[in-house]
Amino acid sequence: MNWGVPVPGDESQVMYVWFDALVNYISTLGWPEDAEGNFKKFWKDGFTLQLAGKDQVRFQSIMWQAMLMSGQIKNTDKVVYHGFITSSGQKMSKSLGNVIEPLALTREYGIDPLRLFLSRHTHPFEDSDFTLERFKEAYNSDLANGLGNLVSRIMQLAQTHLLEAVRPQPKPFPPEFLDAFSRFEINRAADYAWARIAALNQRISDTAPFKLVKTEPARAQRLIAELVEELYFIALMLSPFIPGSSKRIEQAIVSNKKPENLFPRKD
Asked: In terms of Cα–Cα distance, which of 189, 190, 222 is closest to 207?
């Protein structure tokens, strides 16, 4: 072939494009010289995980692994294959005009809502459909009416009725939350966090602290502090999905102030 990446030492030959591309997994770490020790740290001594589309099995699990074996280099420890994101049940294509422009969504909604949709509402292994209607519905349900409303309710109570900010104590994440991540079921982990959000919203409705402050102020303050502590724990769980918003919730708790509307409702 008269085009391609020349083979070092033999310019009459060119590399197969996948050979050149796959070597980037280790060449980016400094292999073969490894002057900074990153190849040894992250590949040789570390746990190597590759994420790839479901149509990449031949290249990632066969060709690349054979290449590594031929060079007497440790094989990849784990390869996780994900499904495709479709639009209205079809493969995204410019000719079909069904491509979703991610930058346009982030300009209107911010990065965190898109991150959350892709984390919670797309399947980690199967194909998943993405439409603007589904995205907007999820945004209003999960964020505007769900998390955003919860943060406003709790932090308004805290700002009004607590004399000082709550200082939550760190605690371990629940096994079911961590287990979902270990199985790469990111959507299940997000679902668990949102179950905690729903339960906390329900607790506010059941205990009515906004009424209790008038009759039993001391008990109401203890209850509000407990609500803030649970909100803080939820914010930590949400950091992998919506890191910017998670940080804003934590800052609101530390300052004991209701933040500006985190997620304005979109019609």
From this structure: 222
Peptide linkage before 243 cis (omega within 30 of 0): no
CATH code, 233: 1.10.730.10
Number of domains in the chain: 2
Residue 72, classified by CB atoms within 10 Å of its CB into exposed (0-12), middle (13-18) or buried (19+), is exposed
pTM of the model: 0.88
Which of these, 127, 37, 19, lies nearest to 82 by C-alpha position?
127
pLDDT tens digit sequence for 234-243:
999 999 999 9
Residue 198 to residue 91: CA distance in whole angstroms = 34
Task: Looking at the structure, tell me whether residues 25 and 65 fall in a common domain.
Answer: yes
Q: What is the DSSP letter of 99?
A: -
My answer on whether 122 and 237 are in the same domain is yes
Tell me which amino acid residue 44 is. Answer: K
**For 186-233, what is each residue's pLDDT tens digit?**
999 999 999 999 999 999 999 999 999 999 999 999 999 999 999 999
Q: Count H helices, E strands: the chain? A: 13, 7
Residues above pLDDT 90, as percent of the chain: 85
